[in-house]
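Minutes, project check-in
Item: structure for the 111-residue chain
Input as provided by the requester:
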Amino acid sequence: MGTHSRNLSLAVLPERLAICVRSPDEPLPEFITRCPLFSITRTHEKVSLVLPEEVVPVDWKAEKGWRCFKVLGSLKLNITGVLASLTSCLADAGVSTLAISTFTTDYLLVR
């Protein structure tokens, strides 16, 4: 079942977020796991982190000023088109986005 037949409800999360980049060789600080919302994506080349902007160390490379929309309710993994339905109008308007998907829902970051 695609999302074209679903109405999505969104909530804006209160924290302002930063998208950070680190080397995969650097250890990650323990404070990250105490953040109310965080995401870590590790590849061979980089580690990308999404963190509340107020906890980002000043010497880290980071882009601040992101807000996060949470798709409310639980989404099954076989539902298609959720992100497309959220990002297509933003792309048409020239708004950059970053998506974070979890087992049960999606989050969309916008500047």
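Outcome recorded: Residues 3-110 form a domain with the VC0802-like fold (CATH 3.30.2130.10).
No further action items on this chain.
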